[in-house]
TrEMBL record:
It comes from Musca domestica. It holds the Pfam family adh_short. Gene3D superfamilies: NAD(P)-binding Rossmann-like Domain. The keyword Oxidoreductase applies. The lineage of its organism: Eukaryota, Metazoa, Ecdysozoa, Arthropoda, Hexapoda. Belongs to the short-chain dehydrogenases/reductases (SDR) family. Keywords: Oxidoreductase. This is Farnesol dehydrogenase.
Amino acid sequence: MSSTLWKSKVAVVTGASVGIGAEVAVRLANAGITVVGLARRAELIDDLNKKVHGNGGQIHSYRCDMANEENIGKAFAWIGEHFGGISILVCNAGVLKANFIVESSNADLKQLYDINAYATTICLREGLKLMRNGKVDKGHIMVLNSILGHRIPDVAVPLFSVYPATKHAITGLCQTLRQEIHFLKLNIKLTSINPGMVDTDFLNVYSHTVADLPKLNAVDVADAIMYALETPNHVQVEDITLQAMRRYDTAGNL
């Protein structure tokens, strides 16, 4: 982040222990922002401070299981008690299971909806409350959605299960929440980040199936988030869709 628009503000990042969440947490802290990271493996979040280099930013951890709504409530209550209002919320936590729907267990289907849709909804509600109750002069909510929340590409990866359905729910949720924010007359933006495949541990469930497909990396997604955060106060970027593309040399070879 090149500007000081958010310096000394407080940000909350869910799923901050690895991958996109970890990259975003470090980028925000290096911009002078106080970051609270939520994840089950809080010790990994604490380790991220080794990548924070001055500028007043710091990363704090809170152990939180996104499959447990009581955990989420306690986490946001703790944030409110220790930091007051927040200015940035990055809803990144999610889960992916590779299977056919017809072969999926009830437990797996429920977990996908519980973490990707229900837990995200609770985080958005509680985060927005902290922004409103803290009377922040400006706020920004980032939701890690997916291309699969808008369309299902016809590719040779059929094992999406109900993951796209959970992300379509997030697309509708973002649109509803923007209307609520406008109705409540709050200076809070909401951006849906819609990446294609990202080369993180998240894709391990597919093993070799996606090995030859082009992929983004966590830095690409973090760049998109930082771009949206740096837009002027009167500009709201509602959706950012990014997809990796194949690169060819002058002879047309990969």
